[in-house]
Known about the structure:
Layout: H1 4-24, H2 30-50, H3 53-70, H4 80-98, H5 106-110, H6 122-134, H7 138-149, H8 154-161, H9 165-182, H10 213-216
Helix pairs in contact: 1-2, 2-3, 2-4, 2-7, 3-4, 4-8, 7-8, 7-9, 8-9
Amino acid sequence: MSPPRLRARDDDAARDRALLARHVEGDRDAFGELVRHHQDRLWRVALRTLGNPDDAADAVQDALVSAYRAAGSYRGDAAVTTWLHRIVVNACLDLVRRRASRPSSPLDEAVAGLPAVDTLTPRETSQQVLAALRRLPIEQAAAVVLVDVEGFPIAEAAAILEVPEGTVKSRCARARGRLAALLADLAPDGGNPPPALPVQPDETQTGAGVNDSRGDA
């Protein structure tokens, strides 16, 4: 008999496939139900990869519109959650590439002005972590967010990113080194902090725009 966690994961995968199939067949509520099951994690991945709530909301919105329209092309070669995360990560990458020529953002420039570590509130710590993630190359940020923050296995992260597993490992290793340097001041003992510090998005922004795609697509 399969362990309870594995059975639950299999049940979730079957539910997701059934909901996506119902959506393709014309069920007007199925896609919204599917999104509700995954929106929090999709939002966290986008926010932590991009480091900016507005950018994350744009990426998730674009991704869900794309998923809504492309559902008929889903062939079942990966779990539905992997397919959804792949679309969200690609939307994040596309957004960064479109904006590559813009000046540095206020969030990046504000990092130097944040208070010293002994006076940081949890919210300010989150801002520093997000800012540090944003300073990584986007491919490295996406890899380390998936593996170290969201806990995806290397193989699943590789499927989401559509790269070999060795590439995911290499990107994570480089990201950890960069984050250790960027976040050294957050370590209470002056040493290197863990690379995957918790980030709590603004609850008023969580899932922003997520459910809008169902009616407009």
